[in-house]
Design goal:
Blueprint: H1 7-19, H2 33-47, H3 59-71, H4 98-112, E1 123-124, E2 128-129, H5 132-149
Antiparallel strand pairs: 1-2
Helix pairs in contact: 1-5, 2-4, 2-5
Length: about 150
């Protein structure tokens, strides 16, 4: 199972992120490549507790759906709706300069994977409080999903 906790999986994600260009064409969804980069940064900020996202979860999402999303070895499908606070057409961070925004994602990913940090207990809007291991698995899957969206 791939996770940002493993150095080689983290390096894979960073290498794929470096392949994304402002003109990269999406395979699905509404975001541009630049908006996707800012969305990833907002999602990492959420995981780190730097961006507050309203909960929209119930018992089903916190248990069965969470387990399926994190541990069943299937690629996430296209068309999953996100929370308004990390939606680039809603309350998400607006794109400014592509290179600087990519560097911000890289920095946040590094911060998220630093051994001295603790993500444990930080709530996900759909899955509720998650462990470090769950957050790092989610971080890999979420980033992979959006990199696949842009062919990276």
């Amino acid at each position: 199972m791939k996770t940002l906790a493993r150095g080689q999986d983290k390096a894979e994600i960073l290498g794929r992120l470096a392949q994304v260009r402002p003109e990269s064409v999406r395979g699905w969804g509404r975001m541009s490549a630049h908006q996707m980069v800012c969305h990833l940064a907002d999602a990492f900020r959420m995981a780190l507790g730097q961006k507050v996202v309203r909960p929209a979860h119930g018992p089903f999402q916190r248990t069965l759906l969470k387990w399926v999303v994190l541990y069943v070895p299937l690629a996430w499908p296209a068309g999953i709706r996100t929370s308004p606070e990390v939606d680039q057409e809603g309350g998400g961070t607006l794109p400014v300069e592509f290179g600087a925004d990519v560097a911000q994602v890289e920095m946040l990913l590094q911060r998220m994977t630093t051994p001295s940090r603790s993500l444990a207990g930080q709530p996900h809007p759909f899955f509720g409080p998650m462990s470090d291991a769950a957050w790092l698995r989610w971080g890999y899957l979420h980033t992979d999903h959006h990199l696949r969206q842009f062919g990276a």
